[in-house]
Structures are given as structure tokens and as C-alpha cells.
Amino acid sequence: MHEFRSHTCGELRKEHVGEQVRLAGWIHNRRDHGGVLFIDLRDHYGITQIVIYPTVDFQYQVGHLSKETVVRFDGKVAYRSDENVNSKMPTGEVEVDANGYEVLGECANLPFTVFQEEEVPEDLRLKYRYLDLRRAKIHDNIILRSKIISHIREKMFELGFNEYQTPILTSSSPEGARDYLVPSRVHPGKFYALPQAPQQFKQLLMISGFDRYFQIAPCFRDEDARADRSPGEFYQLDLEMSFVTQDDVFNVVEEVMVSTFSTFSEKILNATPFPRIPYREAMLKYGSDKPDLRIPIEIKDVSDLFTDSQFKAFKSVVESGGVVRSIGVKKIADKPRSYFDKLVEYAQSIGSKGLAYLVWTPEKIKGPLAKFLNEEQVAAIAKANGVENGDVVFFIADVEKEAARIAGDLRAKLGKDLELIDNNRFEFCWIVDFPMFELDEETNKVIFSHNPFSMPQGGMKALEEKDPLDVLAYQYDIVCNGVELSSGAIRNHQPEIMYKAFDIAGYDKSVVDDKFPALINAFSYGAPPHGGIAPGVDRIVMLIAETSNIREVISFPMNQRAQDLLMNAPAEVTPEQLKELRIKHLPL
């Protein structure tokens, strides 16, 4: 028999009854029923019940072992009595009558329980992550992650893609988030950067003649943490394709998403092709470029209805170039006044100057705004929002960007608070037609709005003849249930168009040559039209695992302050290491 185990703790069934077996694992739980000791022994594969009767000479010793001690048990497989069968466990019809044991790894006092799974401060969980990973929910999440990545990889091969690896040590880019820099020992004063994404390398692979590339790629960005974004590093399904249109990229990604989500979840997926929503339409209807389409609420622009109204606050906003947005909500007119007061307070807490509203009841139309509007204006508002008796319309007035943000936030809150969201659905969509450029709020200068490597719609002609703020890009995001899974684009593969785009954004030709030498030079040697995208693996797993915290699906994440509490990183290094790298530490 094997030194440690003949079977795993998830393997034994009725057909094993009568066999002498050896199991090894952690003491998950312990119960003493009338002198008979029951041990739930757990390993990666499951749990098996071990029974130790008073007749064996080691019952006392085992009974005093702490939970999470690693033990090997020898024994004979037996049927459980009818009243002890556990139908919720795969091994629930059998147990092991122990006749021998050995402690393989003692467990000290636990900082928190593995079973039962109590609420524990996140920093404590991350400090003892190896214990946290033993807990059933997060252990299952990490297994799920492995299976999802394996499935994605198989699907990509099936679709004709090849997997290639790109460098981890590369050069710093002037665009995007902050880089993580790595000092060079052999080139004093110079630095590598960890890649924020394999963007340039995957484009270079297309120029090199590799037609369909993918990689489960690690990416590194010095960003602040959020619930759906881990600081430091993350993984993405990075892909690029040659001789493709935007539709070709969409078809591949939709097939991968449908296959993955339907394999690992029983939730309903919306049909393909996924809806394609222009960026400006999304910002108007949903107040966000990552809308949750499960919420049956749309935002309307009613600015024109207030140009001649007696409500001076809204009228002055419109006259100064701002907008008025309305949010119609069904069947909440019977809510108490306190409900509306709390919504007004919430709106003010997120930056709104207030929150006006109208309530449609069978008797009359009421609300703070009612006395300022005539019948014709009220009727127009009702028509714009599809209002019936029992409905309420809320109003936000501000500059366009702020009105969209506030209205989008309120839409999401209303959807959640009123339980309008169908949690049994995955609603995917594409956000398309992003503006190529935008105005910098501080300098009022034209800058890239998103990805500087995107192909402008209309090519060189659009850049030369259109107002830069009217130029759209072949740039797209895929969104699911309000979570942005990825941004992508059809790439700008023509040097002259790239130089012109960067010139509009305030970059001289020499800057392009200096910062992107490999890419711009490669374009002059015959570059195919190409495009791609990179859906975030962590976010895909997060959605399928039904958790709102991305750290719940990563084995060893950093905390929200970008600290690895388990390995004590970042940490100081020795003066000798700094000297070797020609680095001097300066006080802040």
C-alpha cells in the first residue's frame, strides 16, 4: 500500500465496502457521539467520514488533535447506518472504520476557523492565505478558475489560434497606467518595465505573419485596487487576428464567451450576436459605458422641455450648455415620502445638486417639480418616459458628463434597491464607436480618449477633414452585467495615419519614433490589417463564481493597498542590492 494514501477523500463509494484503505488529509471537523468519535477528513478532492470506536487504543489521542492537523488513517470501508447517510456528500453512504493512524503535520492555534467559515477581516485572510484557501468557497473558486482557463485555451485552439508567449521585461510606455519599473544592473540608470499588456508584441506577431495569436497573459499595472480590479497584476485572454474586421473579432469572442459561461454556469445568456451600443448612446441611456442591461430602466434627455419652463434652476442649466436627464421608474408611486427623501440625500452624496421628481397618481401628478410645469410639459415628459399611473420620473440637471455619471449611478441603485435585476441572467453587450479624441478637462487640449493605436473610422480622410472630437474609432468594449470584461480595437497599421493621429493629440513625429520604434518601423515593412481584444480572466471567473470581489478568485492577491501580506511585499532591500543597481534611496 502507498505510504500516504490508497484513495482520495472524495473517492470512496459503496463498491469499496469491505476494502482496507489508507486516506490522508486535514481534520475538517470532529464529533463525539456517545463515546464513538467521528472525524471528517478533508483533502483537495472531498471529505470522508472516519469512525473511531472506543475499542481502539488511539481514540483518546486522535480526539485531542486540533482541527486542520494532517493525519493518515488506515481502516476498512463500511456502510453508514441509514440514519447517518449524508446524501449531500459524494462519499455520504460510506465511512472508514479506523484501525491505524499517523500524524503527518500538526496544526498550531488557528488565527481563524477553516470550518465553520466565519467572517474574517480581509487583511487577516490574506496574511494567512494558505489557510483561507482551505475554506470550501474560495478553494472551489480557484479550482473553477483553473477549469475555466483550461476550457478557454481549448476553445482558442479549436478556433484556429496558436498560443505564443511575449516578454515580461520590456520598455516603459508613455500611455496608459503607471508602469512597474525594474532597474537594470548591467545598464546603470536604465529601467525595464513589466508589461501593462502585450499590446505591441501581439501586433508585431501579426506583422511577422502569425495569423491568429492568443495567450493567457499576465499584465502589470500600478493602479489602485477596486472590488473588480486587483492592484499589481492580472490575467487576460489576449488575442489578435490578421485580415479581420470588427465583426470577425466579435464573432470569435462571442463564441468563446457563450461556450465558457454556458459550460460553467446554469444562468441564462442573451442570444448572439450581442447588442452593439454606440458609446454616446450608452452614456445617454445608461449613464455608463459599462451598462447593466438587466436593469429595465433607461435614462432620457429632456433638456428641450425645460428651455421655456418656469423652473429656473433647470432652465439656467440648459441655457448655460448643460442638460436635464430623466429616469422613469415603474410602479413606485406608493413609496412613502421618506423613500424619496433618502434618494434625494443619496443623489446629493454623489455630487448632484438635488433630485427633482414627479409622481403620477390616479388623483393628480405631484412632487416638488409639479408646480413649475404646465400640462403640455408634463404630458411631454410622460410620453418621453413611457409613464403610466403609479410611475415616478426623477430628474438630474448638470453639465453633460456629470449628469450622465449621476443618472447612471442612480439607475444602478434603483435597479438594486427595487430588486429589478434578474440575477439568473448574463447580459452581454458591445460598446462601439468610441470617440478617438476628447478634451483634457484641465488644459482644454485634444488628447486621445482611450487607445492611441486604434484605427480611426474613415482613416486619414477623417483625421484631416473632421473636427477631432467627431472622429470615431474602431474601438470596442465587451460588457457583462455592468462589468467591463475588456477593451479592444481594430489597429491603426499605417504609419502616416498613426503620425497624424498622434499629431492631433499633441505628439510630434519624433515622439512616436522614440517611444514606439519597433511598432512604427514594422508598419513600414508591410503590415496586415489586424485587430484584437483581451477579456480579463479574473473578471470572467468573478462573474461565473458569483462574487463581487475579484480577490476571491485569485490565489494570492494583494490587498487594497497593493501589499502582499503573506510574503511581506513590497519590502526594503539591502544597501548592497541598491548599490549594485546604482540606486540611491531619497527621503520623500
Strand order of the largest sheet: 6-9-10-24-23-22-19-12
Summarize the biggest pleated sheet.
Answer: 8 strands, mixed
Q: What is the count of helical runs?
A: 17
The amount of helix comes to 25-40%
What percentage of amino acids are in beta strands?
15-25%
**CA-based shape:** globular
Radius of gyration: 30 Å
Low-pLDDT parts are none
> What kind of assembly state do the chains in view correspond to?
single chain
Distance between the termini: 63 Å
Classify the secondary structure makeup into a structural class. alpha+beta
Overall mean pLDDT stands at 95
- Strands, count: 24
Structure, described:
The protein is an alpha+beta fold. The chain is 29% helix and 24% strand. The chain is built from 17 helices and 24 strands. The chain has an 8-stranded mixed β-sheet with strand order 6-9-10-24-23-22-19-12, with helices on both faces. A 5-stranded mixed β-barrel has the order 1-2-3-5-4. Helix 4 (136-158) packs across helix 6 (246-264), helix 5 packs parallel to helix 15 and helix 12 runs parallel beside helix 13. The longest helix is centred in the N-terminal third of the chain and has 23 residues, at 136-158. The protein is globular.
